[in-house]
Each structure stands twice: as structure tokens, then as C-alpha cells.
Amino acid sequence: MAKIETMLKDEKILTKVELSSYKSENFIDFDKFITKIDPENLLSVKEACDQKLLENSESIVGRYISGSIGMIRRPYDENINMTNLLITFYDVHNWECVEFLCAKILKLNENKRALRMLADCLEETGRPELRWVIYERLVKVDIEEKKIVKQLAAYYHSVKNIDKAIFYYKRGLLRFLNAKETDNAYSCYKELLSLCPTEFGFFLGMTDKAYSLVGTETALQFLQDLLNKNSDNLDNVILILKKELEYDPIFLDAKNQLLATYKAKYGKSERYEYCLAHSGLTNNKLDVNRSIANFETDISYDVNSFVYQRSIDKVGKIVSIDDKQVLVVFDQAGQKKMTLDMARRALEPIPRTNIKVLKLAPIEKLKDKFTKDVNWGLKILINSHNNKCSFKDMKADLSPSVLSAKEWQTFLK
Q1: Alpha carbon 197 to chain centroid, angstroms
Q2: 315, β-bridge pairs
């Protein structure tokens, strides 16, 4: 105790100039002193330092030794003395001491302030390329940090690390939306559209997030850019325009575009005019979203369309249909004729890419496709369950009807 009391007593208050030239070797000497203290005396030494800090809160010796002992006793707690000491040297731009103290603090926990100051230190000392790793650590622990997330995205974009650029633009987009910073959110959204334009589901999901967090205007702005990127894909265009009308039911331009797109996709169907008239979609006085649902339900029942009848667990194909009756052919159950109203209740329209339809083809060919292209297979299974597919659902679809138990296990890997 005598030595620490002498150290504290003899310490003088340092000027800013003296602080700026203070050397980290002094801290190393303090550490050597601390290692020689009997563990039973650590608390007494800390209390002596804390008493000194009541008299002189700027004591370097008091803050460092008290902080170091505090870190030994409670390594994962916020250490006020060590943090204040770090700020002192940061304020006078003593980068040598800043780096030493940051390293000491970060050895035990990912302190947000220490990470920020270390990144600044690296830039100030001519090592700016090293700060990006520190920034990555910072944004992991500081979930409200937005600006640096965007800087990370731009940096990795500039060095052609596209995967990391996409990762940080996505993280930035979410954080800016949560903070209601629409300009920055839109900037991230546009960058992502250029980097990963095929992730249609992600972008559509982000418009929902924008709508719920910041409102219609930003959501429609997102959708317009997404529409421009998908103008050659009729199915995607329809989804986008439907989403616009979901957000703004009186958006007449979107409705007119949707009508034109429906005509481009379904105009050759003999049922198109009937379904359009029956839906009420051209009547501006009716609920547009209900009219859309009516049209899509009706038009999905068409010649050569596939349907699934849950009561008999069979997939069939519509061979004829009018405004009164539907004739469906099932593989082994033969033909079934039913009224259109009954068909709407009993038959679920499914696309040609649904796993139930694909299983009508030769199984060996389908097995070969699943085993050779797992990503394709996963997409088929997920889409077949409207993007809500469990492993149990997947197994029921594939094993043992397509894949053996052993092949199923291989597919999972």
C-alpha cells in the first residue's frame, strides 16, 4: 500500500502539452506494479485510487490503476475510469496512448466508444485501410449506428467485394428505415437494385417495411424503381402494381398499368373478357383490391391449367371451362365435371412449377434434377408452399415419392 500511496501523492497534474506527449510505457509500468499486488489487496489499492480521484478526478495514476483493477474484478462491465482516461488522451490527440488503452479495453469486451476511437486513431496515424475491420466490429455491437454501415457498404463496393457491399447496404437500409431517414434508406435501396436486381422477394418485402415504418410515399418510390428494373417480367410487374394499389387503392395510373399487363398476360385466353367483366376491375367505384382477387381467382381456372383437389389428394388438368361448368381430368381418378362455383370451392389452382405438378412427369428425370441442382429444388419446394415451407413439408413432398431416405439426407446437406 505504501508504494501506491507514494505514487498517488507524488503525481502532479499534467498540462495538455504534457498529456499529448505522455508515453504508453508508463501504463506498462503500472501494469507491472498491478501484477505484483497480492490478490487480497487489490480492493484496498482500488479504494485508495478512488479516494485520490475524489480529490483529483484527472489523476492518470488513479484512473489507470483503479480502472485496471476494476477490469480484473469485473471484466465485462463498463469501466468508467478507463473510459474517462481514454477520452482524456483522445481529446489531446495522443494517439499512442489512445491505441494502447483501446487495445486494453477491447481485449475484454467490444466497447463501442473504444472501437470508434481506435478507428479514428488508425486514420490519424496513416493506417486508414485498417479501420474498416474495426468499423465492422463496431456496427455489430452498435445496432443504432447507420452512417458507418453505409460507409462500409460503399467501401466494399469500391473494392469489388460485392457480397459484403450487399450485406451492409441491406443492413443500412433496415437501420435507416427504422430511424425514418428516408433519403438514406432510398439511397441504399437504389444501390441494392443495381447490385442484386434478381432478389425480387427481398425488394418487395422492403417496400412493405417502408410502408409500415415511413409511409406510402417512400414505399411507392421503392416500387417505382423496382418496376423499372422488372419491366420485362410480366409476373413481377403484376405483383408490383398490385402492391402499389394495396398501398394506394385510388392510384389510377397503377390500375391502368395493371389492366394493360393483365391483357398482355391473359389476353389470348377465351375467358379473359368474361373474367375481367365478372371481377368488376374496370369499375372505379368498386374496391380495387377485391376486384383484383376476383379476377385472379377466375382467370386461374382456364383450359390446360392445373388444379389440386385436397379431398382426394389429386392433381388434375382443366380440359374445358365456361361460365357454368368445369371439366377436369385426373390421372387415375378419371374425369370430373362440376359447376364453376363448386370448382372454386373444391379445386386449388397451382402453377406448372408446383412440386405436385412436377411429380406427374417421369420420377427418374425429376430425381436427377433435384440431386444435381439443390438450389433449384429448394426454390421449387418453397414456392410450392407459398414461401412458408418447413423441413417436414419438404420431406413429405420428396421422400420417398421422389428421393429415397438416403438421397433425402444427401439433399439436406
Answers
A1: 15
A2: 308
**Contact of 275 with 321, CB cutoff 8 Å:** no
Residue type, 27: F
Profile the chain (413 residues) by mean pLDDT over runs of 10 residues. Answer: 81 91 95 91 93 92 94 88 96 97 94 97 97 98 97 98 98 98 98 96 96 97 97 96 97 96 95 93 94 94 92 91 90 83 91 93 92 91 88 92 90 78
Ordered strands of the 314-321 beta sheet: 334-339, 325-330, 314-321, 306-309, 347-350
Please state whether beta strands 314-321 and 306-309 pair in parallel, antiparallel, or not at all (unpaired): antiparallel
Q: Which three cell numbers stand for residue 286?
A: 368498386
- Alpha-carbon separation of residue 402 from 272, 352, 369, 387, 405 (angstroms): 36, 17, 11, 21, 10
pTM of the model: 0.84
- Side-chain-side CA neighbours of residue 145 (13 Å): 18
φ/ψ region of 140 (left if φ > 0, alpha if ψ in -120 to 50, else beta) reads alpha
The CA distance from 262 to 88, in Å, is 67
Q: Which three cell numbers stand for residue 278?
A: 365478372
CA torsion, ordered 173, 179, 180, 183, to nearest 10 deg: -50
Give the orientation angle of helix 182-195 with respect to helix 216-229, to 10 degrees.
Answer: 20
Q: Which residues pair with 341 in a beta bridge?
A: none
**Which H or E run contains 338?**
strand 334-339
Candidates 318, 314, 398, 393; CA nearest to 363 is: 398
Q: How far apart are CA 212 and CA 178, in angstroms?
A: 10
Element counts in the chain: helices (H) and strands (E): 24, 5
Interior angle at CA 45, CA 43 and CA 47, nearest 5: 70
Q: What gap in Å lies between CA 221 and CA 225, rounded to an integer?
A: 7
**Residue 324 in grid coordinates:** 357454368
- Side-chain-side CA neighbours of 158 within 13 Å: the count stands at 8
- State how far Cα 404 lies from the chain centre: 35
